[in-house]
Amino acid sequence: MNFSLADTMALLERTPKTLEAMLDGLPEAWSRGNEGPETFSPYDVVGHLIHGEKTDWMIRARIILDQGESRSFDRYDRFAQFRDSSGRALPDLLGEFGSLRAENLRKLKSWNLAPADLDRRGTHPVLGAVTLRQLLATWAVHDLTHVHQISRAMAHQYRDQVGPWSAYLGVLRCQGHGD
Questions:
Q1: What is the pTM of this model?
Q2: Could you tell me if residue 178 is inside a domain?
Q3: CATH number of the domain encompassing residue 79
Q4: What is the pLDDT of residues 11-52, one digit of tens each?
Q5: Quick one: three-class SS letters along the chain?
């Protein structure tokens, strides 16, 4: 599949509603459970996504467009949600994520990016040169990674309850990045 900004934005706009449908109103046993030490719960993932909306995707896109490779992106704090979300209710986090994402997508659309803009390059502090197209594609796949992670964390809560069916439940066997 070739990159399409419209297709990317269509996916990105659905993530908040997807997470709301999956998580809003669930008992905390589902939303606060994780896969073990140093893994994220669904609650943690929502906080992580909020932090990204505030400090990652659009900030980096603006750096690419305004400064190109002359300025490296700031490092991203992958664990800021543990500080920033502390004491907050999940419905509040879901609402904030939805609002931030909608605003970021409105802003992205307002930039009226041309195909040549998508080839513009910036500098990631670890990966080196990256294009705006790669950044935006990564934003979409990052969302999908975390939807998958939420599913894994939730399934993990019943890993010992499903008995022999575990042989048929791939979500209990797949391992992913901790964030």
A1: 0.94
A2: no
A3: 1.20.120.450
A4: 999 999 999 999 999 999 999 999 999 899 999 999 999 999
A5: CCCCHHHHHHHHHHHHHHHHHHHCCCCHHHHCCCCCCCCCCHHHHHHHHHHHHHHCHHHHHHHHHHHHHHCECCCCCCCCHHHHCCCCCHHHHHHHHHHHHHHHHHHHHHCCCCHHHHCCEEEECCCEEEEHHHHHHHHHHHHHHHHHHHHHHHHHCCCCCCHHHHHHCHHHCCCCCCC
